[in-house]
Amino acid sequence: MISRNLKLIIALIVVGTIAAYIVLVTIPTQLTKRSYEAAKTLGEDFKKAFQFTPEIIVNHTIILNQQTPVLELAVLNQNFEHRYSWTNTWMNSTKQITITGTFEAKAGFDLNKKFSILLKEDQAIVTLPEPKILSVESQGDIAYSDEQGVWNWINTENRAQATNAFIQDARTFANQADFVQDAKKQMDEKLRALLKPYAKEIIIEYDQSVTPKR
To answer: Structural domain tally of the chain?
Structure first.
């Protein structure tokens, strides 16, 4: 029969494992969701009062980027799921945080740069800046899956580092995906449909070097 001391040890291990999971996974995930919603609300209040959203950081994690007023035309809104794994090895013990979540990428045009239409005889020549990713925003459904090292345990700082890297990696993905090209295609189709009654030949030029409007 199992001794009382052994039963007590097993019980303590089980309780300790459950407590560690709650402290290291469940509570941080809930706090992250609440922090994201609170930061977003603060950003909206700031925007209403000052027409400006500051960079908002919660627990060393950038929740909202600074946004200044800019005249932009978002042609494409694209939702995408993203997955990222953050790892750290210390004394041959590796810990890993796998993060998943949904983002919305907006692709379009910075209309502070020159956007012109030249009507010449039967031609319409459109000059506008190259499209770009205007914003990449988390939808607040960030989820974590942790793998602890044998003696290299995940802490709050690690989770903040992993979250920041996750958001940056999502932005990198959006810039490398086909979102910008899809936005250009949609803009091209809309411009041609709009200008068709005014010209027989429509020329659309995308120029990275177009100067800002005066």
So the answer is: 2
End-of-domain residue from the set 51, 68, 85:
68
Q: How far apart are CA 114 and CA 126, in angstroms?
A: 10
- For residue 45, what is the DSSP state? H
Domain boundary among 68, 91, 126: 68
Q: Are residues 46 and 96 in the same domain?
A: no
Between 60 and 152, the more confident residue is 152
DSSP annotation of 59:
T
Place of tokens 């020159």: 114
Packed helices 156-176 and 27-50: angle between N→C axes, nearest 10 degrees: 60
Taking the C-alpha atoms of residue 17 and residue 19, their distance in angstroms, rounded to an integer, is 5
Local structure of 112: helix, strand or coil: coil
Distance CA 23, CA 4 (A): 28
**Does one domain contain both 83 and 50?**
no
Q: What pLDDT does 32 receive? A: 58
Domain containing residue 100: 70-214
- Do residues 106 and 133 touch, judged by C-beta distance below 8 A? yes
CA 183 to the chain's CA centroid: 18
> HSE on the CB side for 202, CA within 13 Å?
15
3-class secondary structure, 133: strand
The enclosing H or E element of 157 equals helix 156-176
Residues 193, 124: Cα–Cα separation, whole Å: 12
Residue 40 has pLDDT above 60, yes or no: yes
